[in-house]
Design a protein that fits this description.
Blueprint: H1 6-10, H2 23-42, H3 54-58, H4 71-80, H5 83-103, H6 115-123, H7 132-139, H8 143-148, H9 153-175
Helix pairs in contact: 2-5, 2-9
Length: about 180
């Protein structure tokens, strides 16, 4: 995260046309979604979040994806999350996804997501009850579809938003003579 200062990372709401969420929220969201989809839906294993005291390290209590999150909770997450721990969690999830993909054989890619795994999303508070639409979306995917969306395209979409947020905020700060 080059040239990303703490204020830019945490600013919420963001005055951007396609998002009002902070960079902190976007990074947390893509990591949570990747963690739950790869570990629960693809492999039916434990999420990275529940290893190594990640919630405590990140100074967070949210275990869900962040979809349909209240404005108050987004503000709380944005102001409280530990930046370095979030980046470490992001790296751990990415490494785990690489391990999972290496375990898959060609026959796995056409397999549909088992309903028991969809249920686990709610049992483990990975998806909030009011985000049922998200679980329904994922339940229609096969493993290849989950690798494409969310494990790749979803990440690119949100990282692109982060870059636009950072650029817009830095441009505004430069105009004001703060940089």
């Amino acid at each position: 995260m080059n040239n990303l200062d703490d204020n830019t990372f945490r600013q919420y709401p963001v005055p951007n046309h396609d998002t009002s969420n902070s960079i902190a929220w976007h990074l947390w969201h893509i990591t949570r979604v990747e963690d739950m989809t790869m570990n629960i839906l693809v492999l039916n294993e434990q999420q990275v979040l529940h290893t190594s005291n990640w919630l405590e390290k990140m100074n967070l209590s949210f275990t869900h994806s962040g979809n349909d999150m209240s404005k108050e909770d987004i503000a709380l997450l944005s102001s409280n999350v530990d930046f370095n721990s979030l980046l470490e969690y992001r790296a751990a999830v990415g490494k785990r996804t690489q391990e999972i993909i290496s375990l898959l054989s060609p026959g796995h890619f056409n397999m549909k997501v088992e309903q028991e795994r969809i249920k686990r999303l709610f049992d483990e508070n990975a998806v909030m009850k009011n985000s049922k639409w998200l679980a329904e979306y994922w339940s229609k995917k096969d493993i290849a579809g989950l690798l494409l969306m969310p494990a790749t395209r979803h990440i690119f979409l949100h990282l692109n938003k982060c870059v636009r947020i950072k650029d817009k905020l830095h441009k505004k700060m430069k105009k004001m003579g703060l940089v």
